[in-house]
Queue: 2 jobs
Job 1
Amino acid sequence: MVQRSSQSNYCRGTVITRTMERNLNMLAYDTFQGIAIKTEEEEILAGLMAAQKYLPCKFFYDDAGSKLFEQITRLEEYYPSRTEKSILKRHAEELMKGAEGVSLVELGSGDCSKISILLQVLPRAILKTSTYVPIDVSMSAMKESRSKLRERFGAIEVCGIVADFIQQIHRVPKHENRIFCFFGSTIGNLDRQDAVRFIAKLGKMIRTGERLLLGLDMVKDKTVLERAYNDEKGITERFNKNILNVANKILGTDFEPEYFRHHAFFDDEKQRIEMHLVAMRNMVVKSPFFEEDLEIAKGQTIHTENSHKFTSHHIDEFAAVSKLSVRAVYTDINRWFTLTDYIK
Ligand code: SAH
Ligand code: AVI
C-alpha cells in the first residue's frame, strides 16, 4: 500500500471505510482552519425537519443507488449519458492533446466510464506519466471503477478520494498540470446560487494553464426532459425511493419506501427537473435521533433532487465567476448537451 503526499489522498489500493471517512471528517474539521463539515446525520436531520422536507441528493449513492444510477445511464429515455459520451468520443483526441504529465481530477466520477473515453486515446507512455484523481461520495463506485481502470489502463496512477466534493474540495491534491473534469451535468444538482459559488471556488483553485471540462444538460423540450426522469421500467423510481433506505441506515429511521410515490416534473420557471417522494398515506417515522416522532401526512412530499438545465448564458456566467476563459464548447446534433473546455 502506498500513501502519497498527505493523509487525505489514497493511492493504489488503499481502502477507506465509512467509519474511517467519518473520523477523517472530524480530523478535517480540526485541522482545516475551522472549515465546518456537517456530519451525514446532521444533513439528513436538517432536511427532514424543514417545512418542505428534503434529502440531499448525494444520499442517493450507496451501493444500491450507484448501481441503479448506472442502469439509468443505459435507459433509452435518459439521453444525457449517451449524448455526453458521444461528444467525448468525437473530441477525445483534441481534448487530450499535450496531456503528458497531466493530472485528471474528476468530481463525481461514478463508474468512470466517461474518463475512460479520454484515457483510451492516450498512448501507454503518456498514461505512465499521468495521474487520475476521482473524487466521489460512493465508496462502492470508487472501488469498482478503480479495479476496472487498473485492468484497462494499468499504467496510470489512480489516486481516489472518497469525499463530498462540496464540503471537502480542499482534499484535491495540488499536483502540477491538472484538468478538472465535472461530467454528467452533476453541477445541475446544486441550486443555481450554489452552482455559481462552487464554480467560482473551483476557479480560485485552478492555476494558470489548468483546465475545467464541464458537462451541462441544456434546456430543451419539456416532454424529452420529463421522459428522462420517468422511465417506463421504473428504474428512476427505484433510484428515488432508495434514498429512504439510505436515510434508514444512517439515521435509524423506519421509512417504508413502498408507501411513497415517485414524482418528477419540469418546472419551466426554474428550468429544472424536481424529484419528490409523495407520501401515499399518513405516517409516523421514528429515529433515535428525533426528539419527537416525525409525522408525515398523506400527499406531503420529500424533495429529493433538483436537476437544473442550462443555456449558453450559464456557460458564460461560469466563465465570468471563475475567471476562466472558454476554449471551446462542444455539443451534439440536437444541442441537447454541451461540454465546455475552460482554461485559466
Ligand atoms: N460523472 C458520472 C456520474 C454522475 S452521477 C457520469 O456522468 O455518469 C453523480 C456522481 O456524483 C455519483 O457517482 C455520486 O456518488 C457523486 N456525487 C454526488 N454528489 C456528490 C458530492 N457532494 N460529493 C462527491 N460525490 C458526489
Ligand atoms: C447525477 N445527476 C446529474 C443525474 C441527473 O440527471 O440529475 C441524477 C439523476 N436523477 C435522476 N436520474 C438521474
Note: The pocket of S-adenosyl-L-homocysteine (ligand 1) is lined by residues 58, 61, 66, 69, 73, 81, 108-110, 114, 136-138, 141, 164-166, 183-184, 186 (CB under 6 Å).
Job 2
Amino acid sequence: MSNDIKSMTLQEIQDVIKSAGFEKYRAQQVHEWIYKKKAQSTDDFKNIPLKVREYLEANYDFFLPEIIKQQESEIDGTKKLLLQLDEDTKIETVILNDEGRYTACISSQAGCGCGCAFCATATLGLKRDLTAGEIVGQFLRDEIEAAHLLDNVVFMGMGEPLLNTQNVFKAIKLISDPKGRGFSQKRITVSTVGIIPGIEAMIEEGLKVNLAVSLITADTALRSKLVPMEKTYLIKDVIRAAKKYCAKSETRLTFEYVLMEGVNDSAQDAEMLVELIRGIDCRINLIPYNKVSGKKYSSGQREKAISFQKILKGYRIKALIRKEKGVDIDAACGQLAAKEDKK
Ligand code: SAH
C-alpha cells in the first residue's frame, strides 16, 4: 500500500526516479499523467519509456479504484460509486451536480467508529483508515466520472476525517499541489463530528480548507446520546478550537445541524442553538434528515425546517436549508453504508 504512487508527493516520486537512475524530469511527467492527464494505469504514461514504466510497475502501484457499482439519481443526476479498494474493502463516493457545479463527497475511512445514533455509516463500525492514495484515488475517479472538472470537495462521505489526519492532510496537500492538479484548498471542506486534537493539527499543518462541525444539537445531554464523541470533546470546547482554526486559516466556519423530527427541531432547540453560537462568525447548514433503514429518526415537514431557519435568521444568523440530493439512490448526506459489503 505504501508503494502506491498516488500517495506520493512530487518530491517523493523524484526520489524514486532518481534512486533508480532515470532522468529527473520523468518524475514530473509521471506526476502530470496522474494529476493533469488523468491516467488510469502506468500503461497510459505514453511519453515515458517502457523501461521506466516497467520499473514503476515492478516496484510500485498505480491504479485508480475500480467501480464495482454505479447508481445515478433520476431526480437530480447525483452519482454514487461503490469503489473496491482491496479484496476486503469497499467504500462509497458521491458526485453531486448542482446546476453545472460539481462536488465530490469523499470518504476518509471505510466505515466509522464514531457511533452517531442517526448515521448509516455508523452501523458498519470502523473497518480501517483510508490511505492518502485511496483518498486521492476517489478524487481522480470522481473527476473522471463527472467528465467535468470538480468545483468542490467535501469530506462528508464515510468516516471521520479528523481521526485519520495523517492520510487526509496528505491527500489534501496532494490534490492542492500547484504543480499537480492545483485544486484550491478554499474549495475543500473537512466535516468533523468534533475532534479537538484533529482541529489543532489542522492549525499546526497550516491548512486553508473550510471546516464544518456537525453540531447536531446545542443540548449537551441530548448531544451525548446522538453523538457519543460529545463525551470526549464537549461541543463548547470544539467550537473554541474551530474558531481558532478559522481565524488562523482565514476560512469560514460552518455548523451542520441535521434536523430530526421531534428530536432537535423545535423552536426551543433553535433558541438553544442561538444561545450557543451567537456572536460567532459562522453559517448554519440545516440538513433535513435522510431516512436510514432500521433507524427510528425522520425528517419533519419542510415548514418545520423553515420555521427553524426563521428563528436563526431573526438573530441575523446565516442559515441555509441544504438541498436534498440523490435521495432515490441512498446517496444523500449520511446514507453511505456500502451495502454491498454485507453480502
Ligand atoms: N464524520 C464527519 C463527516 C461524515 S458525516 C462528521 O460527522 O461530520 C457528514 C454529515 O452528514 C454530518 O454532518 C452528519 O451529521 C450528517 N449525517 C449523518 N447521517 C445523516 C442522515 N441520515 N441524514 C442527514 N445527515 C446525516
Note: The chain has a mean pLDDT of 94.
